[in-house]
Specification:
The chain is an alpha/beta fold and about 210 residues long. The chain has nine helices and five strands; from the N terminus they run αβαβαβαβαααααβ. Strands 1-5-2-3-4 form a five-stranded parallel beta sheet, with helices on both faces. The longest helix has 17 residues. It is elongated and about 55 Å long. It comes from Enterobacter soli. Keywords: DNA-binding.
Length: about 210
C-alpha cells in the first residue's frame, strides 16, 4: 500500500479521527519520537523479503524502547500475515491482511486502534489463537538450516535425525505456515535468520516501507 493509499485510508471514517504521520526511513521515525507522542505504529509491508526484515527490526526495537505504543503490521496477503504472526520475536497488537476488501480493512484497523493495549488477544488475529500451530524447535532449526542452503540429508546429519523425520517436520512447518513450496519456506527461513536466538485526537503513525 502506497503512501497515497494510506492517506486515502485514513481520510475515511472511522479512521479520519486519527492524525497520520508517514515515514519511509528508520532515522526519521526515531527522530519523530523526540517531539511527538504516538498512539500506534502501523508498518505496511509489500511482500518483499528485505522489507520484512526491516519490519522485524523496527518493531523489535519499538517493543524494547517504546513498549507503551501499539504495534500493528499490515501484511500484503494471508501467507505473509501467517509468516509474520508465527515468526515475529516481539509481541504485536495486531496483524491485518490488507488484501481483504476495503470495508473489511477499515473495520479491522479501526477495531485495533480503538482497543486498549492488550497484546495478541484480539479476535481479528486468529493466527495467534492456536498455540498448537506454532513452529516447534525442530521445525525452526530446519528452516534456519534451509536458509543457509543445507539439503534435507545434510540437515538430517546436523540434527542427528533420519531423513524421513526431517521431511515430516518440514511438511508440518509448511502446513502451519500455510505455504506449499520451498520458496514459501525460504521466506520463513529468511525471517528466522534475522531473529535473535530465543525472543483528545490520537495520533496513528504509519511506516509504509524502509528504503
Amino acid at each position: 500500500m502506497s503512501a497515497i493509499g494510506l492517506m486515502h485510508l485514513f481520510a475515511m471514517p472511522p479512521l479520519s479521527d486519527y492524525k497520520l504521520h508517514l515515514f519511509t526511513c528508520a532515522d526519521s521515525l526515531k527522530a519523530a519520537f523526540t517531539h511527538t507522542s504516538f498512539f500506534s505504529v502501523i508498518y505496511s509491508l509489500s511482500d518483499a523479503r528485505e522489507e520484512r526484515r526491516n519490519c522485524l527490526s523496527c518493531m523489535r526495537e519499538l517493543a524494547q524502547t517504546h513498549n507503551d505504543i501499539q504495534r500493528i503490521v499490515l501484511a500484503s496477503d494471508e501467507m505473509e500475515a501467517k509468516l509474520v504472526s508465527h515468526l515475529f520475536p516481539s509481541r504485536l497488537h495486531g496483524i491485518i491482511n490488507k488484501a481483504v476488501p476495503l470495508i473489511e480493512l477499515l473495520d479491522e484497523l479501526s477495531a485495533l486502534l480503538s482497543e486498549t493495549r492488550r497484546v495478541n488477544d484480539n479476535m481479528l488475529n486468529h493466527w495467534y489463537v492456536s498455540h498448537n500451530r506454532l513452529l516447534s524447535p525442530t521445525e525452526r532449526a530446519i528452516l534456519r538450516f534451509m536458509s543457509f542452503g543445507y539439503s534435507i540429508p545434510e540437515i538430517a546429519t546436523q540434527l542427528e535425525r533420519n531423513i524421513k523425520t526431517i521431511r515430516a517436520h518440514k511438511f508440518n512447518a509448511m502446513v502451519k505456515l500455510g505455504v506449499n513450496s520451498d520458496v514459501g519456506l525460504l521466506d520463513a527461513a529468511d525471517l528466522l535468520t534475522h531473529l535473535p536466538v530465543g525472543e483528545g485526537r490520537r495520533t496513528a503513525l504509519t511506516v509504509p516501507a524502509f528504503s
